[in-house]
Amino acid sequence: MFRRVFNTIVEQCISESLVKGEGFAIDASLIRADASQQRASDRPIDWGSQETQSLAVKEYLAALDEQSDLNRPQKSVSLTDPMSQWSGAKGPAEFYYSTNYLIDVENNIVIDVEASPSTLKLEVATTRTMINRVEENHGLLPERLMGDTAYGAAANLDYLVNEKDIEPHIPVWDKSKRNDGTLSVSDFKWDETTNEYRCPQDKPLRHRWRNYKPDESGITKSNTMAYRSRQSDCKDCPLKQRCCPNTATRKIARSIYEDSRTVARNIVDSPAYEKSCRERKKVEMCFAHMKRQLQFTRLRLRGMSSANDEFLLVACAHNLKKLASMRGPLEPVIG
Ligand code: SF4
User: Residue 117: beta bridge partners?
Assistant: First the structure.
């Protein structure tokens, strides 16, 4: 019901031409859960029989089977609202949920909102949920999406570039740069036609030097493929100490989504990105408005579905305020 109310308000904003649909920005903000630090445990918990479990606990146990990220050992699990996440990101550690906003940057209208546990991976996963839902509900697919580095994970960029044809105005999540004086991946040239890297000595780094069985993809769990140089090339190389001082050959792990990462890198180097960086801040302004003007800093209810309801209501209030302030005074009703 709350989702339908929210969608109706978004439709109203679209019909009043407050939504351009060209550029969307995405981000998440932490909201304190209604869970006390004292009612928490860092040991295996006996949740009791189904009859005695609260709705929040039942939701959590059901989600454990689906969301592997929730199975990670947490420092502390709330006994009253176990889906909330223990986090010290905002000062002293407390339990939080994340509200994820997708906004249209033209007039800061919240186009979609989704609750998630406060982990980076699950926050980023809401990108697909919200983009797909906005397309389905309102027929809107932006030309560009703005977000911070958290959204620059390779699989997320590939979803935007290849599945949705959306320009990712997002910095690439890249840990390949070395700061110890040795050669970084950027010092090697990628050759698409031969499917190999070329090192500064113009020697090849290949994924396969011999024939493998056809069913061996060579893709690692982290969705990368290893490219290696030849020992015979590196043995007497003058750059050996700067390239691979502790190993016989140089290895580069290339993401299977590297092409999408390259698209995002090229956008970051373009003049359009500067404008996107400024517009990205608008989603942070929406969160500031939510906390300062609407005074929404703590959830009243427990469990993920209740968090979703509260976040939807707050987004409704935000959009209604925008709608009222931008459309001007209404004609008085006579009679
Ligand atoms: S050590 Fe090997 S990979 Fe590195 S620059 Fe020399 S030949 Fe190339």
Answer: 97
Q: Which atom of ligand 1 is nearest to the CA of 200?
A: 5
Q: How many domains does one find in the chain?
A: 2
> What confidence tens digit (pLDDT) does each residue in 201-240 have?
999 999 988 766 665 778 888 899 999 999 999 999 999 9
Read off φ and ψ for residue 119, nearest 5 degrees: -120, 145
Burial of 44 (0-12, 13-18, 19+ CB in 10 A): exposed
DSSP bridge partners of 24: 104, 145
Do 275 and 296 lie in a common domain? yes
Structural domain including 193 reads 185-249
Ligand 1 pocket, 261 CB below 6 A? no
- Ligand 1 center to residue 248 CA distance, Å? 10
Residues 13 and 136 in one domain: yes
- 52's tokens: 């005695």
pTM: 0.86
DSSP single-letter state for residue 326:
H
